[in-house]
Amino acid sequence: MIKQITKQVTPIAGVIAGSLAADIVINKALPDTINKNIRTLIPVGLGIFLITMKGDFMKSLGSGMIANAGTQFAKSAIPGLAGITESDMDAVFEDISEEIEINELDTLNDFDTLNEDISEDISEDFSTLN
After folding, report:
1. What is the model's pTM?
2. What is the pLDDT of residues 101-128, one digit of tens each?
3. For residue 20, how many other CB atoms are within 10 A of its CB?
């Protein structure tokens, strides 16, 4: 029975250890002067090397490194995965407002007309529901 439990715990421990090892490589072992995306890819390479070795623990260690580093790389390469903060949205709206001349009266009138059209459409949709 203990042998069966050990058989299941060892791969889990390897994945956890690999994930922690990837964090250490990315955040402690490599200098900050290296681009964050490059730093996250290095543990992926190490993980690939480890999964080719003999032994279940080494393979699970490599899998943990790949999973953690791959996730961190995806978050840094695709900002939407990491979550968009309020300050990110402020920057987007600031950029948009620089491109669009909102101060022009015609533009504001167009927005008012659009708003009235939408309000009428919504009112019509709700009246058909009753």
Report:
1. 0.58
2. 554 445 555 555 655 665 665 565 555 5
3. 14
